Amino acid sequence: MSVVLLMGPTGAGKSAAAVALATRLPAEIVSVDSALVYRGLDIGTAKPDAALRAQVPHHLIDILDPAQPYSAGQFLRDASAAIEAIHARARIPLLTGGTMLYFHALLHGLAELPEADPDLRRELDERAARGGTAALHAELARVDAQAAARIHPNDPQRIQRALEVFYLTGQPISELQASRQAPLAGHDTVKIVLSPERRAVLHQRIEERFLGMMAAGFLEEVRALRARGDLEAQMPSMRAVGYRQLWAHLDGAYGLEEGVRRGIVATRRLAKRQLTWLRALAGARWVEPSDHGAVDLIAGLVKSSPSPNPS
RNA sequence: GGCGUGGUGGCAGAGUGGUCAUGCAGCGGCCUGCAAAGCCGCGUACAGCGGUUCGAUUCCGCUCCACGCCU
Predict the structure, then answer these.
(1) Which nucleotide is nearest to A69 (CA to C1')?
(2) Which bases of strand B sit closer than 7 A to a protein CB?
């Protein structure tokens, strides 16, 4: 059974290409996106609208309330279930998105580690605030020297995770991480990267798109999210690009113009990080989005995908 | 035409006769349950040409450019 991976930086035009592809192939779209999972984050995430979603089945969109955290592990379970269901219908799963950790997890697997523990994280956060990140890193070095060596002393997120896993399991994360199994291991995969060759082109698309979102009511969307009263700036959903900056603007941190500017900058940086993953990815076919035959080209690649990809 | 002030990396903006400003932007990279996150790394800039000096972005002269004032 084959699976198609349609990847690319934000703003490259993946969503539109996926829909176009799905209308000419027996395919269903599985979103690989950490922000599209949230209900109510529509404009700022460039979420495919209802009309598009009526046209082609989309999975893993709007599955969560913005107050809830999501995770790569949960994504793996959700995506695996979706892929299986689509295959059961004798259709092709078209995994589309830009959350590269999720693609990576699909391709290489995740070790069996415990889920995040909110209480423990809160406690570690407090200790980091009091004693500093360096102290926690030193603590990690005592219980798991190998992990400490790999994690930079300034990286609070990973230090916290390593400590969390250790306290939850009593075992060093560096040992637990040694084994993992890739969910896509048994499938043929067609990997496609949709991205402009020239960075300047991508930057321009990003800016135009962000401005378009503003014109479409992005600020009002964020305002409405804030008005719920139960969302906070630290939540994963509100840390999404654009939401974070507009939220800070509404907090009075800076003017609207500055918020927009920062939102665009954050989007460019996101694209840059995505491209770093993408460049390191083996066996992908790169496609220029502005080429008129781009969708046909991809459709052709999918149809003629004879090469069972062992990785 | 005269006088004055100023020309610092993509932008902003300090500064010094002999390591490094800095900030923003940009670029490269890392990545195993917060990932649209978190983190690491990267710039012989001192308008040009001469001169003084062991050494000039810093001192002197000329040229060019910008701004202001004057005729």
Answers:
(1) B34
(2) 24-40
Structure tokens at A157: 């997120």
The answer, yes or no, to whether residue A105 has pLDDT greater than 90, is yes
Q: Is the Cβ–Cβ distance between A24 and A94 less than 8 Å?
A: no
| CA of A10: nucleotide with nearest C1' | B36
Distances in Å between the Cα of A277 and the Cα atoms of A106, A166, A245, A270 are 14, 28, 24, 11
Closest nucleotide to the alpha carbon of A267, via C1': B36
Residue nearest to nucleotide B31 (CA to C1'): A101
Residues A210-238 have a mean pLDDT of: 97
Q: Does the reported pTM lie above 0.80?
A: yes
Q: Are A184 and A105 in contact, with CB atoms under 8 Å apart? A: no
Q: Say how far A133 CA is from B38 C1', in Å.
A: 13
Distance from C-alpha of A182 to C-alpha of A104, rounded to nearest angstrom: 9
Distance A271 CA to B21 C1' (A): 31
Instruction: Say which residue the tokens 């840059």 belong to.
Output: A272
Burial degree of A265 (CB within 10 A; 0-12, 13-18, 19+): middle
